[in-house]
Structures are given as C-alpha cells and as structure tokens.
Amino acid sequence: MEIREGISSVAFTVIVCLCALWNFSVRAQALTYSHAQGLPSTISPSGKLGIQSYSLTVFKNALSKNGIDLTPATSTIPNSADVLINLIRDEKNEDSYYWITPLFAFECGDKINCTPNAGSQTTTIAVSYIALSKSEGVANIAERLSELTAQYKGSDDFIVLADAMRDELKPLFPKTVLTFGTLSLAGELHANTDNLWIIADNVPLFSEVGERGKLTGIAADLVRDILDEVTLKQDILSAPWERIAKEAMTKSNVLVFSVIRTNERDSVFHWITPISRNLHGLYGIDKPYFNSIVDVPKSYRVGTLLEDYRYKVAVEQGFKVQAYDSWQTLVSALINNEIDTIFGSQGAIDFGCNPNQFKCETITLISKYNISTAYLALSKKDTCVLVLEKLKLAAADVKMSDKFNEQLISWSDMVSQEYGIAHHTEHGVVHLWNPN
C-alpha cells in the first residue's frame, strides 16, 4: 500500500505536515491581505481600483463558504501580508510564494517584469496572482486556497463577475479576454498541452497495470477524467519511479502521479491536485499511546521497510531498528514479537496483515509522526504555467462532477469489502485512516 519515500519516491500519500490533523478545510483560519504594487502604468488610477475590487471579490467569493477570515493588513512594511493580491510572478520572486491562482495578464516590459514560461503566444506577458507568502507549515493552506479558487472559477457566478470586469476594461484594452480563469489585457493566451507525457508508478489500488496493459485504480480514473476534461487522448504510461523522477527533472510537460510532496520537490514540480493522504506513525500491539514519537521509550524495537525514509528517522530518534523487505514480513515480525512497533501507516498495516490469520484490529497507532499527501504533479522545467492552470481548473471540475464521485464511491466500497482497508474521502481525496 505504500512506496518508499525519499528524494525519489512515489506513493499515494504526500507530506503536508501533521499540523494538528486540520481536516484540510482551513476552518477558522485568519489571513491578512494587501494589494501588491506594480500594475502597468497604462492603467488609470480608477482602473487599478476596479482591478483591485474585482480581484478581492474573486478571492472572497471563493472562500466565502469555508470559514476563512480575510482581513486587510495593517503593517506599513511592503509585502508583509500573508496574501498579496495581483503580485506579478517573475524570476526573482518565483520561489518566495505559493502561487494560488492567476488573475490578470499584461504585456510585459516598461518596468513590468515578464513571467517565465507564460504561454506560447508571440507576445511576452506578465501574469498577476493571488500569492501566499511561504513560511513553515502553510503549504496545506496554500493547497486548499488553490483548490477553492479553482472551484470558484468553474462557477457561473465567476463567469458573470469576470465578464463584467472584461467589459469595463475593453474600452482602453480592446484585446481583453478571459482565458484559463485569467483576464488577459494582452489578448488570447495559449497553453499547448498536445505534447504532455502522462506517466505513473505502479501503486496497488491507485494506479496498477490491469488487463491488456491498461492502468486501473482510482488515481488513474481521476487523471483520465482530467484528460477528458481538457480533451486530451494521450495514453497513461507506467514506469519505475527512478525513470519518472529522471524525466520530470529534465523534461517539460511531464504529468506524473502519485508524487509525495516535499519542500525539496517544490523546485521540480508544479502541484496540480491531491490524490490521497496517509497518517504515518508507530503501530503496535497492546502498547500505550504516546502524544509524540519523542516520548516513545527508546528501548522499543522498531521495524521499517528496507531503504525507507522512516528507517533513518527511527535511527535518529535513538530506537533499535530492524528493516524488512515487505509490509507482510513486517507485520509477521510484530506478531512474532521480533519487534515492538512498526513505523508505517494504517494503509500499510491493513495491506500487510492477513485478517484470516490474525486479529488485525489489535494492531493500533501508538504515536503519530506526520501526514503525507500524494499529488498529480507537472514537471516544472520549462513548462508553461498556463498549462498548470488549465489542468488545475480541469481537476477542480472533475472532483466536483457526479461521474468522478460515483467512481470514488464504487472504489471505496470495493476497497472496504475486498481488502478491509481503513479510509474515508474528503473533497475528492482518499484519506487512508478512519475519520474518528
């Protein structure tokens, strides 16, 4: 049920940091915002006010039903707010922010920096975004903000609002058009997806090679639906992770799943949409619960997979560590008292334990470590950022569709009945643990 994590691992789980198991709804989250400076001087003061009003309305409408409190920043320090609205994305600030959603596109030059890889149109452009300042523990917030704005951009209410703003801009900027949820004052935007290469690792139940070589599983279903949404007919290929990682780091337009999100991978991938999450920790039989892994007695013998990142973590924590070649052998070792705990996840325990041979429910979590999340991701090297937005909007539409949710329900029933794997779903994402 898991693939080893590390600099080059894939799984159907991706790091999003435990952060209090926040239920991924960002409830009661308070964010400050300010309007970034730097809109083109060709826009009049009243036009800039109109753009600011429109942009803030888009953001507030996207968050309106999700309990997120937006308040104006009071600091006089430039760019000190959590969220900057209409920040131009350029080479200098690319790595300093989470880019939530694009708002406007302008012709660049004349003191307006161009946005790298911003489409295949002949005119170079600057793209302004809602951007969240990067800091420890906010990647999960950025993910949810990005999803909510993508969902809102697929609504009729957004189209009405955007059309009104377009009509307001057209007298001075007659080429203004709405493309990929972005109002472009520079005319039609182009994001060529014809040369996308779609590739996945073999992950049981999520993406595995079935009859006649076709990839099956809920992750494969999701990606196939997204490709249909953007009218792409490319096949989904399967390859070992080592090859996937190499291609993603060296080529553009490589669409891959499922990739564990880590800080070091932010330079390699654009993150499109989460597929699944997993709760990692120490699991044992008849052991007390500890609030933190650092509180677990160092005399405990800990079992991990061979070459798994958790082996190193357990060693660094001072445990006696033994590595095994499969989850089945790990569970057997626990049952036979060769080890005291397994460093893994509930999904791994369910996968490795045979309920016909042992009461698997007696293996319980004794200490949490983190939550990981697996994504559909896009290689970042020379890949157009508008391709990313095109796929994000498609992913949001698919996850809200009756078709995908029926697929998800059917898959969930099968996993429960045939495999007995603990899980639940939220916002179209599989969480591999019981909700309580």
From TrEMBL:
Protein name: ABC transporter substrate-binding protein
Superkingdom of this protein's organism: Bacteria
